[in-house]
Amino acid sequence: xxxxxxxxxxxxxxxxxxxxxxxxxxxxxxxxxxxxxxxxxxxxxxxxxxxxxxxxxxxxxxxxxxxxxxxxxxxxxxxxxxxxxxxxxxxxxxxxxxxxxxxxxxxxxxxxxxxxxxxxxxxxxxxxxxxxxxxxxxxxxxxxxxxxxxxxxxxxxxxxxxxxxxxxxxxxxxxxxxxxxxxxxxxxxxxxxxxxxxxxxxxxxxxxxxxxxxxxxxxxxxxxxxxxxxxxxxxxxxxxxxxxxxxxxxxxxxxxxxxxxxxxxxxxxxxxxxxxxxxxxxxxxxxxxxxxxxxxxxxxxxxxxxxxxxxxxxxxxxxxxxxxxxxxxxxxxxxxxxxxxxxxxxxxxxxx
Length: 352
Ligand code: PMP
Hints:
Largest sheet: 5 strands, mixed
Number of helices: 12
Bound molecules: 4'-deoxy-4'-aminopyridoxal-5'-phosphate
Order of helices and strands: HEHHHEHEHEEHEEEHHHEEHEEEH
């Protein structure tokens, strides 16, 4: 650290993203990217004329993108907030809604950015242990003591809470925002979006990084009551008004409007997830039921870190976490059939 850094920066650990090797020598199943290219309609946006227009600032209201998102979910543009990836949306939600006198609440095993944001913004937080089977007990989140963050499906477990369980949390946290991070929700059957009109304390956070094959475009959004969306807008205009670039605004709108491509490709990932799960079980792995585009798996008698390292030697990247309770698990992104077969073949050679 430099002698100039603040105490907060000195005393916190930054988020560690998954490895992003910049060559294509790995089969990359470590950061839950989509294995297919974005829709042709998205690719058609990126013309040299559009590149030339980059001399101009982007639309700070993200009007084209908000309209496309609102239409897709049967909401109004005033219910939509757009961010530079859902990480930025989450960060702005911490700044807008988490009060110093409160305690932010989230599960002990969940998206690793929640404790980082809380530390960075100087907030108290409480990590609530998952149950023995790694599921979230909604009854642990009824204290109304601060903003609640729940990833649904949860990451890295892939397990999903029902809409009824989410509603129970909303009803019991009337004085605080409940953020449901639905980064992986398109690969499951449940979403809290239907509850937005009923609960003004619900913020649903989504991303184009996974199911729309746009991790590199950095587009995230939040849906909620118009008053809390206006709060996020105020925070954004106090931080980075042109947070989405000109291309990403149009790319996002094109992607969400191409329902046919979205449905076709997400259906393939769900099929591939089943085949990958079956293949892992055949190799003796325990696989948690996943509502996302990754599976969380371990094999008794095998050390998770060793498996991760041996797969890497074989040119396959998966994600390993060193946290005690999950250190023998691997989080494996669902890839194409060929990628998944390569992973299963490699594991077949590696495991005892
Ligand atoms: N939430 C969860 C649960 C995630 O796993 C991720 C991906 N790392 C994000 C949010 C952030 O995704 P992005 O910033 O690419 O939208």
